[in-house]
Records
---
Amino acid sequence: MSGTILITGATSGFGHATAKLFAKNGWKVIGTGRRAERLAALKDEIGGAFHGMVFDITDEAAMASEFAALPAEFQEIDVLVNNAGLALGTATAPNVPLKDWHTMVNTNITGLLNITHHLLPILIERRGMIVNLSSVAAHWPYAGGNVYAGTKAFLRQFSLGLRSDMHGKGVRVTSIEPGMCETEFTVVRTGGDQSASDTLYKGVNPILPEDIANTIQWVASQPKHININSIELMPVNQSFAGFQVHRDV
Ligand code: NDP
Ligand code: 8X3
C-alpha cells in the first residue's frame, strides 16, 4: 500500500524517521514542524515526494493558512500521524511552572485536535487512517509525569473514542504507546541538557526512532479490514516498579 501521509513533528525523532521510511516505500510525505531548515533538509533528501509545512501546532491560524497553500498533488491525505508533542520537566506538582503545563496541553492535546478536526473530512472520504503517538505514561504513572502523562492518557482514550465515532466509515485509528526512546525528547524535557539525556539512556539500549517508524509502517500495511487499536512497546531494559508506600510516624 502507498498513498499520502501527513506526519506532524517530522523535524526530529519518530516523525523524522517515519517520514524517511514512508518516502523510501513510495509514499508522498507531508512533514510539519517549526524548524524550517530541518524540513528543507528533508525536502533535499526526499525530493518531490516531500512537502514541508512550517507552523507551530498550537497556532490554529498558522496551520489553516499552511493547509490553504497545500499543493493539489498532496491534498488527498490517506494517513495522519499525530506525532508532534513534548514533555516539559520532571518536577512533582506543585513545583512546576503552570506555563509548562499549559504548553504541554496546548501542544499535545489542543494542537493535535485542531489538525485532526481539520483532516477528518478528507480521511473519511478516503477511508484513511489516524496514528496517534501516546505513551506508556498513559498507563503507568510515575512521579513527575503529571500533566505529560495526562495528555498521553487523553490521547489513548481519544483514539479509542474516534474508533467508535468512525464506526462504519472505514477509517482506522491506532494509539501507539512507546516507552523510552532516545530522540530529542529528553533534551527538550530538561530544557536543553544533552548530558542529562545521555545519562538517562546510557546502557538502557532504548527504542530507536527507526523502531517506531517500522511499527507505524506495519500498522499502515495491515489489510484494510484490520484495525490495530493500540500497541504498547518498551525497551527490554525498562519495566515496572511497585507502588510507593508512605508511612506516617
Ligand atoms: P522529539 O523531541 O525528537 O520530536 C518532537 C517533534 O515534535 C519535533 O519534530 C518537534 O518539531 C515537534 N513539535 C514539538 N512541539 C511542537 C510545536 N509546538 N509545533 C510544531 N511541532 C512541534 O521527540 P520524539 O520523536 O521522541 O517524540 C514524538 C512523540 O512521541 C511525542 O508526542 C512524544 O510525546 C511521544 N513519545 C516519545 C517517547 C520517547 O521516549 N521519546 C516515548 C513515548 C511517546 P519542532 O521542534 O521543529 O517544532
Ligand atoms: C515518554 C516515555 O518512559 O520516558 O513518553 O515516560 S517515558
Note: The first strand starts at residue 4 and ends at 7.
---
Amino acid sequence: MSGPSAEQLAALAALRAEAEARVRAARGRDALQQLRTDYLGRKAGRLTAILKGLPALDPDARRAVGEAANAAKAAIETLLEAAERALAPAGSEAPRPDLTMPARRQWRGALHPVTLVVDEVCAIFGELGFTRYVGPEAETERNNFTALNFPPEHPSLEMHDTFYLGEGMLLRTHTSPLQIRVMEAYRPPIRVTMPGMCYRRDPFDPSHAPAFSQVEALAVDEGITFVDLKASLTYFARRFFGPSVRVRFRPSFFPFTEPSADMEVECLICHGTGCPACKGSGWMEILGAGMVDPNVFEAVGVDPERYTGWAFGMGPHRMAMLRYGVPDIRVLFEGDMRFHDQFVDGG
Ligand code: PHE
C-alpha cells in the first residue's frame, strides 16, 4: 500500500504509541481524564478526528485506516480503563487516617468496690448458711433505737448524730434495726446477713462519711455462745483478707449486745506501721459485735431463757479501703472514672 493511506497509517501508529506512553506515565485521575479528552474526546479528540475523516477516504484506504484507528481506539480505551481501576476509589485522595492516633476511650461498666465487698461478705456467710435480707433506709425510732435497748438519754439519739425525718421516723443510723425486723418476721433458728446504707450527721473526712454502708449479721439459736461469734468472725477475716491476716477483739459497748466487742484487722495500707487511714495505730476497726442483749429478745418476743445469739455490724467502706489500699474514704464517693476503671474486671 502507498500514498495517503500509508502516511495516515504511520501517523496513526505514532499517535497510538504516543497515547499509550502518556497513559502509562500518567499519575492521578485528573491526568487520565485529560488524556481521554485529548485522544478520544467526542469533539476535539485526536483519534476521533481521524475516525471522523474516514468517509472522505476512498474505500480501500477507508477500510485499512478505519481498522487501524478502531484498534488504536480500543487499545487506548483499555489502557485508560486499567489505569483508572488501578487508582484508589474516588475521594480517597483525601489524607489517609492517622493510624498512630490514640483510639477513643471505650468505657465499660463495673460494680462499685463497696458493692464488691458487700457481695463477697454475704457470699462467705452464705456458705455458712446465712441468707440475705434487706429493709428500708427510712426507719422508725423504735426499730433504730428503742427496741435495740437504747436508753432515752443515749447520745446517739441527739439531733447532731441522727437525721430525723419527723413523725417518729429517721434515716437509720446503722443496720441493726434489721435485727428487729427479722426477729419479728421469723422464729429462730435465724442466720441472716443484712446489707444496707446508713446515715449519720458526720462531716466527710478521710475515714468518715455522712452516708456509708454496713453489713449486719445475726445468728439466733439454742446454745450459741461468744466462742461461735469469735470463731465465725476470725474465719470470715481469713477468708476475706487472707489466711495470715492478724485480727484482734477489744471490749466495747453497744446497748443491744452484752458482752460487746470490736474486731480490728491489721491495717493493710501501712501493714501495721501507722498511717492516716488507721490514725497511726496500725489497726483498723472493721466491725462491732456482741451477744444479743436479752432486752432485745424481750422487745421482739423471743424467749431469752431458751435462745442466745450473736450479731455484728461491719463497715464495707472501711473494708474496701483496706482491701484495695484506698487511703481516703472520700475517693469511694467521688465517682472519678480513673479510680473506678480499675475495678472493671472485678477488682
Ligand atoms: N450497730 C453497731 C454500729 O453501728 C454495730 C453493731 C452491730 C454492734 C451488731 C453489735 C452488734 O456501730
Note: The longest helix spans residues 59-86.
